[in-house]
Amino acid sequence: MRFLIVFMALISLAACTTGNNPAGAPVPQLTFEQAQPVPIRVAMLEMLDRSASKRSMDDRSGDFITPPVTALERYFRQRYNPSGFDGSLQVIVEQAGVLVSEKPRPEGFISNLTSWNDQDVYTLSMQLVLRASNGAATELKLHQQKDMPPNLSLAQREKFLQAMMEEMIADLDAATLRAMD
């Protein structure tokens, strides 16, 4: 009888973890195919990545489903449509990276008595130069910092980081449109 109770308890626990979990589905990569194309009066859009040589050993761009440099290239290629007869627009990626630090533990007597879950702080930084063939250039610097809640599942971490990247690209979109006016 006791064996039957233990067996039923184990089956009910296993059923909790093996059910269909749509939240655990893979997060899709950012493609920007839904972005409304913006025509630009140049014949060519050129992407240059100078960030690779400047990336620190602590860079955590690989934590993202779509790393920052890849997201930047996809964004510019999908969003801006060269429709002119001459000239070019260079998009120079000077820096695109992610650093992770640990949120400091609060000071004080009470904080020593409570449990403290390690919390990562993700810092996403991008620095770009938009250079037209006539020599005009605009520098864009974007920076975003978010505290990742502790105890997230892998799928939840991926969604958190993807949302962070989407917010950064939305900020980049607004800054780029302002710079091109």
* Topology, number of strands: 6
Poorly predicted ranges = 3-21
As a whole number of angstroms, the C-alpha radius of gyration is 23 Å
What is the straight-line distance between the termini? 78 Å
Largest sheet: 4 strands, mixed
| Oligomer kind | single chain
The general outline is: elongated
- Return the structural class: alpha/beta
| Tally of helical runs | 4
Strand order of the largest sheet: 2-4-5-6
Order of helices and strands: HEEHEEHEEH
Mean of residue pLDDT values: 82
Defining key terms:
disordered N terminus, alpha/beta, elongated, two-stranded parallel sheet, 4 helices, 4-stranded mixed sheet, 181 residues, 29% strand, single chain, 34% helix
Short description:
By secondary structure, the protein is of the alpha/beta class. It has helices at 2-18, 68-79, 109-113, 154-180, and strands at 38-40, 44-49, 80-82, 88-102, 120-132, 137-148.
Structural summary, described in words:
The chain has a 4-stranded mixed sheet, with helices on one face. A two-stranded parallel ribbon has the order 1-3. By secondary structure, the chain is an alpha/beta fold. Residues 3-21 have low confidence and may be disordered. The termini are far apart. The chain has helices spanning 2-18, 68-79, 109-113, 154-180, and strands spanning 38-40, 44-49, 80-82, 88-102, 120-132, 137-148. Strand 5 (120-132) and strand 6 form a beta hairpin. It is 34% helix and 29% strand.
